[in-house]
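WARN retry 2 of 3 for item q-0093 after timeout on previous attempt; input resubmitted unchanged.
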Amino acid sequence: MSMATFTFTPTSLASYFPLPQRKLPGFNPIQVSSNGHAHGTTFPEKGVLTRPATSSPTPPPPRPRRIILVRHGQSEGNVDESVYARVADPKIPLTEKGKAEAEECGWRIREMIEKDGADDWKVYFYVSPYKRTLETLQHLGRAFERHRIAGIREEPRIREQDFGNFQDREKMRVDKALRLRYGRFFYRFPNGESAADVYDRITGFRETLRADIDIGRFQPPGERSPNMNLIIVSHGLALRVFLMRWYKWTVEQFERLNNMGNGNMIVMEKGYGGRYSLLMHHTEKELRQFGLTDEMLNDQEWQKTARPGELNYDCPMVNSFFTHFEDEGCRT
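OK item q-0093 returned
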Protein backbone atom coordinates (compact mmCIF):
# COMPACT_ATOMS: atom_id res chain seq x y z
CA MET A 1 0.00 0.00 0.00
CA SER A 2 1.10 3.56 -0.48
CA MET A 3 2.74 4.96 2.61
CA ALA A 4 1.03 8.28 1.92
CA THR A 5 -1.95 6.97 3.89
CA PHE A 6 -2.01 8.02 7.52
CA THR A 7 -3.91 6.13 10.17
CA PHE A 8 -3.59 6.54 13.93
CA THR A 9 -5.27 5.13 16.96
CA PRO A 10 -4.67 8.05 19.39
CA THR A 11 -7.13 10.82 18.57
CA SER A 12 -4.81 13.37 20.21
CA LEU A 13 -2.17 12.62 17.59
CA ALA A 14 -4.60 13.33 14.78
CA SER A 15 -5.48 16.66 16.39
CA TYR A 16 -1.90 17.85 16.05
CA PHE A 17 -1.44 16.33 12.59
CA PRO A 18 -4.63 16.89 10.55
CA LEU A 19 -3.79 14.18 8.08
CA PRO A 20 -6.77 13.32 5.85
CA GLN A 21 -7.16 9.86 4.46
CA ARG A 22 -5.94 9.81 0.86
CA LYS A 23 -7.86 7.60 -1.54
CA LEU A 24 -5.52 5.01 -2.97
CA PRO A 25 -5.50 4.38 -6.69
CA GLY A 26 -7.03 1.02 -7.54
CA PHE A 27 -4.98 -1.73 -9.10
CA ASN A 28 -5.51 -5.28 -10.20
CA PRO A 29 -3.92 -8.14 -8.28
CA ILE A 30 -1.26 -10.23 -9.97
CA GLN A 31 -2.84 -12.47 -12.57
CA VAL A 32 -1.05 -15.68 -13.44
CA SER A 33 -1.71 -17.39 -16.74
CA SER A 34 -1.83 -21.12 -17.26
CA ASN A 35 1.85 -21.13 -18.25
CA GLY A 36 2.79 -19.56 -14.93
CA HIS A 37 3.64 -16.08 -16.24
CA ALA A 38 2.23 -13.01 -14.59
CA HIS A 39 0.36 -10.57 -16.81
CA GLY A 40 -1.80 -7.48 -16.65
CA THR A 41 -0.20 -6.37 -13.37
CA THR A 42 0.33 -2.79 -12.27
CA PHE A 43 1.45 -1.44 -8.93
CA PRO A 44 0.72 2.29 -8.90
CA GLU A 45 3.14 2.86 -6.04
CA LYS A 46 6.27 2.06 -8.03
CA GLY A 47 5.23 0.35 -11.27
CA VAL A 48 8.28 -1.90 -11.20
CA LEU A 49 6.74 -4.95 -12.88
CA THR A 50 5.30 -3.10 -15.87
CA ARG A 51 8.37 -1.07 -16.89
CA PRO A 52 8.93 -1.57 -20.65
CA ALA A 53 11.96 -3.68 -21.41
CA THR A 54 13.31 -0.99 -23.73
CA SER A 55 13.17 1.84 -21.20
CA SER A 56 16.37 3.07 -19.57
CA PRO A 57 16.87 2.06 -15.93
CA THR A 58 15.33 4.45 -13.46
CA PRO A 59 18.01 6.00 -11.24
CA PRO A 60 17.64 5.24 -7.56
CA PRO A 61 15.82 7.85 -5.49
CA PRO A 62 18.00 10.28 -3.55
CA ARG A 63 18.88 9.22 -0.04
CA PRO A 64 17.45 11.32 2.80
CA ARG A 65 19.68 14.16 3.89
CA ARG A 66 19.47 13.10 7.54
CA ILE A 67 18.31 10.38 9.89
CA ILE A 68 17.51 12.15 13.16
CA LEU A 69 17.20 10.07 16.33
CA VAL A 70 15.02 11.67 19.03
CA ARG A 71 14.58 10.38 22.56
CA HIS A 72 11.17 11.07 24.10
CA GLY A 73 10.75 13.96 26.50
CA GLN A 74 10.74 13.54 30.26
CA SER A 75 8.08 11.00 31.29
CA GLU A 76 6.40 10.43 34.63
CA GLY A 77 8.51 7.29 34.96
CA ASN A 78 11.70 9.36 34.63
CA VAL A 79 10.60 11.41 37.62
CA ASP A 80 9.06 8.69 39.81
CA GLU A 81 10.06 5.06 39.20
CA SER A 82 7.20 3.83 41.39
CA VAL A 83 4.86 4.73 38.50
CA TYR A 84 5.98 1.52 36.75
CA ALA A 85 4.30 -0.52 39.51
CA ARG A 86 0.91 1.13 38.87
CA VAL A 87 0.88 2.04 35.18
CA ALA A 88 1.77 -0.18 32.25
CA ASP A 89 5.04 0.99 30.69
CA PRO A 90 3.47 1.65 27.24
CA LYS A 91 0.87 3.92 28.88
CA ILE A 92 3.18 6.21 30.87
CA PRO A 93 2.76 9.82 29.64
CA LEU A 94 5.08 12.80 29.47
CA THR A 95 5.36 15.38 32.19
CA GLU A 96 4.70 19.02 31.36
CA LYS A 97 8.47 19.48 31.23
CA GLY A 98 8.69 16.58 28.80
CA LYS A 99 6.12 18.17 26.49
CA ALA A 100 8.12 21.41 26.48
CA GLU A 101 11.33 19.46 25.76
CA ALA A 102 9.69 17.76 22.80
CA GLU A 103 8.41 21.01 21.32
CA GLU A 104 11.80 22.67 21.76
CA CYS A 105 13.43 19.70 20.03
CA GLY A 106 11.08 20.15 17.08
CA TRP A 107 12.08 23.77 16.66
CA ARG A 108 15.77 22.86 16.90
CA ILE A 109 15.26 20.29 14.14
CA ARG A 110 13.49 22.83 11.96
CA GLU A 111 16.22 25.42 12.50
CA MET A 112 18.86 22.85 11.53
CA ILE A 113 16.99 21.88 8.34
CA GLU A 114 16.32 25.46 7.28
CA LYS A 115 20.03 26.22 7.38
CA ASP A 116 20.34 24.00 4.30
CA GLY A 117 18.65 26.75 2.31
CA ALA A 118 16.35 24.34 0.44
CA ASP A 119 12.71 25.22 -0.22
CA ASP A 120 11.37 21.71 -0.79
CA TRP A 121 12.44 20.07 2.47
CA LYS A 122 10.14 17.65 4.30
CA VAL A 123 10.19 15.33 7.30
CA TYR A 124 9.03 11.74 7.62
CA PHE A 125 8.49 10.19 11.06
CA TYR A 126 8.93 6.71 12.49
CA VAL A 127 7.56 6.54 16.03
CA SER A 128 7.40 4.00 18.85
CA PRO A 129 3.80 3.16 19.84
CA TYR A 130 4.38 4.00 23.53
CA LYS A 131 2.35 6.90 24.89
CA ARG A 132 5.41 8.98 25.83
CA THR A 133 6.84 8.74 22.30
CA LEU A 134 3.48 9.48 20.64
CA GLU A 135 3.12 12.53 22.88
CA THR A 136 6.68 13.54 22.03
CA LEU A 137 5.76 13.34 18.35
CA GLN A 138 2.65 15.46 18.91
CA HIS A 139 4.58 18.28 20.57
CA LEU A 140 7.65 17.98 18.38
CA GLY A 141 5.39 18.17 15.35
CA ARG A 142 4.16 21.65 16.27
CA ALA A 143 7.28 22.99 14.57
CA PHE A 144 6.10 21.71 11.17
CA GLU A 145 3.24 22.73 8.90
CA ARG A 146 1.15 20.00 7.31
CA HIS A 147 2.81 20.33 3.90
CA ARG A 148 6.24 19.71 5.49
CA ILE A 149 5.20 16.29 6.84
CA ALA A 150 5.62 13.63 4.15
CA GLY A 151 4.33 10.81 6.34
CA ILE A 152 4.31 9.01 9.67
CA ARG A 153 4.67 5.36 10.49
CA GLU A 154 4.07 3.79 13.91
CA GLU A 155 6.79 1.18 14.33
CA PRO A 156 6.52 -1.33 17.25
CA ARG A 157 10.04 -2.63 16.70
CA ILE A 158 11.56 0.60 18.03
CA ARG A 159 9.63 0.40 21.31
CA GLU A 160 11.28 0.53 24.73
CA GLN A 161 13.23 -2.42 26.11
CA ASP A 162 10.75 -4.71 27.87
CA PHE A 163 11.49 -4.86 31.61
CA GLY A 164 8.56 -7.15 32.41
CA ASN A 165 5.00 -6.08 33.02
CA PHE A 166 4.19 -4.07 36.16
CA GLN A 167 7.56 -3.50 37.80
CA ASP A 168 8.29 -3.76 41.49
CA ARG A 169 10.52 -0.83 42.38
CA GLU A 170 12.82 -2.64 44.80
CA LYS A 171 13.12 -5.69 42.59
CA MET A 172 14.08 -3.49 39.65
CA ARG A 173 16.88 -1.95 41.69
CA VAL A 174 18.23 -5.41 42.38
CA ASP A 175 17.87 -6.41 38.72
CA LYS A 176 19.68 -3.29 37.52
CA ALA A 177 22.51 -3.94 39.94
CA LEU A 178 22.75 -7.49 38.59
CA ARG A 179 22.81 -6.09 35.06
CA LEU A 180 25.94 -4.11 35.85
CA ARG A 181 27.64 -7.27 37.11
CA TYR A 182 26.44 -9.46 34.25
CA GLY A 183 26.84 -6.93 31.43
CA ARG A 184 24.46 -4.27 30.14
CA PHE A 185 24.06 -5.86 26.73
CA PHE A 186 23.39 -9.50 27.58
CA TYR A 187 21.51 -9.28 30.90
CA ARG A 188 17.87 -10.23 30.36
CA PHE A 189 15.35 -8.87 32.83
CA PRO A 190 13.01 -11.54 34.25
CA ASN A 191 9.93 -11.72 31.99
CA GLY A 192 11.54 -9.01 29.86
CA GLU A 193 14.30 -8.40 27.35
CA SER A 194 18.03 -7.92 27.19
CA ALA A 195 19.65 -5.30 25.00
CA ALA A 196 20.64 -8.25 22.80
CA ASP A 197 16.94 -9.03 22.32
CA VAL A 198 16.32 -5.40 21.36
CA TYR A 199 19.22 -5.69 18.89
CA ASP A 200 17.40 -8.50 17.09
CA ARG A 201 14.20 -6.54 16.51
CA ILE A 202 16.12 -3.34 15.71
CA THR A 203 17.93 -5.34 13.03
CA GLY A 204 14.58 -6.09 11.43
CA PHE A 205 13.60 -2.44 11.58
CA ARG A 206 16.93 -1.39 10.08
CA GLU A 207 16.36 -3.67 7.11
CA THR A 208 12.89 -2.16 6.60
CA LEU A 209 14.33 1.33 6.87
CA ARG A 210 17.06 0.60 4.35
CA ALA A 211 14.50 -0.85 1.94
CA ASP A 212 12.35 2.28 2.40
CA ILE A 213 15.40 4.42 1.62
CA ASP A 214 16.36 2.35 -1.43
CA ILE A 215 12.91 2.63 -3.05
CA GLY A 216 12.11 6.11 -1.76
CA ARG A 217 8.93 4.94 -0.05
CA PHE A 218 8.67 8.10 2.05
CA GLN A 219 8.90 10.37 -1.00
CA PRO A 220 5.54 11.98 -1.89
CA PRO A 221 4.09 10.78 -5.22
CA GLY A 222 6.02 12.17 -8.15
CA GLU A 223 8.76 13.72 -6.02
CA ARG A 224 12.46 12.84 -5.79
CA SER A 225 13.72 15.42 -3.34
CA PRO A 226 17.17 15.08 -1.75
CA ASN A 227 15.94 17.25 1.11
CA MET A 228 13.97 14.60 2.98
CA ASN A 229 14.75 14.22 6.68
CA LEU A 230 13.79 11.04 8.54
CA ILE A 231 13.00 11.44 12.24
CA ILE A 232 12.90 8.38 14.51
CA VAL A 233 11.13 9.08 17.83
CA SER A 234 12.04 6.32 20.25
CA HIS A 235 13.74 5.46 23.55
CA GLY A 236 17.25 5.78 24.91
CA LEU A 237 18.37 2.17 24.76
CA ALA A 238 16.60 1.42 21.48
CA LEU A 239 18.34 4.38 19.83
CA ARG A 240 21.76 3.34 21.13
CA VAL A 241 21.15 -0.16 19.84
CA PHE A 242 20.08 1.30 16.49
CA LEU A 243 23.39 3.16 16.22
CA MET A 244 25.26 0.04 17.26
CA ARG A 245 23.56 -1.97 14.54
CA TRP A 246 23.92 0.69 11.84
CA TYR A 247 27.62 1.32 12.44
CA LYS A 248 28.47 -2.25 13.46
CA TRP A 249 29.78 -1.26 16.88
CA THR A 250 30.91 -4.03 19.21
CA VAL A 251 29.25 -5.05 22.46
CA GLU A 252 32.09 -3.47 24.41
CA GLN A 253 31.65 -0.20 22.53
CA PHE A 254 27.90 -0.26 23.12
CA GLU A 255 28.36 -0.73 26.86
CA ARG A 256 30.50 2.41 27.00
CA LEU A 257 27.78 4.60 25.50
CA ASN A 258 25.88 7.07 27.65
CA ASN A 259 22.15 7.57 27.41
CA MET A 260 20.77 10.55 25.54
CA GLY A 261 18.99 13.19 27.56
CA ASN A 262 15.21 13.43 27.35
CA GLY A 263 14.09 15.44 24.34
CA ASN A 264 17.55 15.35 22.80
CA MET A 265 18.64 14.18 19.38
CA ILE A 266 21.54 12.55 17.59
CA VAL A 267 21.90 13.36 13.90
CA MET A 268 23.15 11.01 11.21
CA GLU A 269 23.81 13.30 8.25
CA LYS A 270 24.65 12.30 4.71
CA GLY A 271 28.32 12.83 3.99
CA TYR A 272 30.13 13.79 0.81
CA GLY A 273 30.08 10.24 -0.57
CA GLY A 274 26.49 9.40 0.41
CA ARG A 275 26.97 7.49 3.67
CA TYR A 276 25.76 8.79 7.03
CA SER A 277 28.22 10.15 9.57
CA LEU A 278 27.67 11.53 13.06
CA LEU A 279 30.59 13.92 12.49
CA MET A 280 28.71 15.79 9.76
CA HIS A 281 26.59 17.46 12.47
CA HIS A 282 28.16 16.76 15.86
CA THR A 283 31.53 17.82 17.16
CA GLU A 284 34.16 15.35 18.33
CA LYS A 285 33.65 16.63 21.88
CA GLU A 286 29.91 15.92 21.76
CA LEU A 287 30.46 12.39 20.46
CA ARG A 288 33.10 11.66 23.10
CA GLN A 289 30.61 12.72 25.77
CA PHE A 290 28.14 10.29 24.23
CA GLY A 291 30.76 7.56 24.60
CA LEU A 292 32.51 7.23 21.24
CA THR A 293 36.13 6.10 21.42
CA ASP A 294 39.06 7.06 19.17
CA GLU A 295 38.35 4.00 17.03
CA MET A 296 34.71 4.92 16.59
CA LEU A 297 35.53 8.54 15.80
CA ASN A 298 38.07 7.47 13.18
CA ASP A 299 35.38 5.36 11.55
CA GLN A 300 32.94 8.28 11.62
CA GLU A 301 35.57 10.39 9.86
CA TRP A 302 35.79 7.73 7.15
CA GLN A 303 31.98 7.64 6.89
CA LYS A 304 32.01 11.34 5.93
CA THR A 305 33.55 10.64 2.53
CA ALA A 306 32.78 6.96 1.88
CA ARG A 307 30.18 5.78 -0.61
CA PRO A 308 27.36 3.30 0.09
CA GLY A 309 28.60 -0.24 -0.33
CA GLU A 310 32.24 0.54 0.45
CA LEU A 311 34.09 -1.18 3.30
CA ASN A 312 36.55 0.52 5.59
CA TYR A 313 39.51 -1.81 5.16
CA ASP A 314 41.67 0.46 7.33
CA CYS A 315 39.12 0.53 10.14
CA PRO A 316 41.09 0.47 13.42
CA MET A 317 38.29 -1.58 15.04
CA VAL A 318 39.69 -4.57 13.15
CA ASN A 319 42.97 -4.20 15.03
CA SER A 320 41.22 -4.21 18.41
CA PHE A 321 40.30 -7.90 18.00
CA PHE A 322 43.92 -9.06 17.68
CA THR A 323 47.11 -8.58 19.66
CA HIS A 324 49.74 -9.78 17.21
CA PHE A 325 49.31 -6.73 14.96
CA GLU A 326 51.46 -4.73 17.38
CA ASP A 327 54.45 -6.75 16.15
CA GLU A 328 53.73 -5.44 12.64
CA GLY A 329 53.71 -1.83 13.79
CA CYS A 330 49.92 -1.47 13.41
CA ARG A 331 48.05 0.96 15.60
CA THR A 332 45.60 -0.82 17.93
